[in-house]
Amino acid sequence: MPTSQTSRTPSSSSQITHPRCLCGKVAPVRTSNKLTSMGMRFYECANYWEKKCGFFEWIDSPCDSGRHELVQKIDLLER
């Protein structure tokens, strides 16, 4: 099971806990660009560009309020 690391952000005194991926490194925060999860943040393996251990954990929970309409508008704009 991955462990966590607590850090402080420079602009805030609140503490943020970052899990460690299965490689043992602190898992960085990434943001989804897929239409079904656009803008949602998640933790993923720190070795993203090398070998991936498969670690993945959502930070944000899905929000259905208005998401469908937003996805349709994005799709229309992309066409």
Automatic annotation (TrEMBL):
This is Uncharacterized protein. It comes from Rhododendron molle (Chinese azalea).
